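Ticket #4471: structure output looks truncated?

Reporter: J.K.
Steps to reproduce: submitted the chain below (185 residues) through the standard prediction queue, then opened the result file.
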Amino acid sequence: MVDAMTYGFMVLLPCDVVVDKGTFSWDWQIPEPATENHPRAPLSFHTPGQLAGSPFATPSQAALKFNSFWTIEVEDGWSLFATHPVNRQDLPFRLVTGLVDSDRFSDGGINFPAIWTEPEFSGVLRKGTPVAQCFAVPRAAPQLEYEVFDEKRQASYAQTVADVLSTPGVYRKRFRARRRRATGE
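Returned output as attached by the reporter:
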């Protein structure tokens, strides 16, 4: 669970956003951007028509758009997979999962659409709240292999399951790969 929650990188809310039953406000004094058309607001909105035909479409509800203040570039042949922060059902919004070919699209900020899921919510989304979790993924489809579940594999399966069921921590101690955290260097 922790590995999943810390995998990739998070896009964080850059300032406090006050929410009062569907009204959003913020007091964020940032300098005028040097680049034309660069956002100054932490969020904006998609009109309901932009969601037409999707499972998120509701005639009366606009989708939020968390604005990005970063450009993101991945290696050639890779895309950026952006999703709701893993295991964060406590957030009053749900990010719409998407892929961006940011090996090609890396000169502009990626904005992250979300559906507000708690219309009666009143409170503050604090600066640093995770709004998107991102992973670099290869665009090439993996080559899958299908093999017979022979006697040797059956025995290995039975032993592994028996070990996991009888010994606490066996997965963590014997199978889990150690993770290194990205340092940004």
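Triage note (M.O.): checked the attachment and the full token line is present. The two ends are 26 Å apart (CA to CA).
Status: closed, working as intended.
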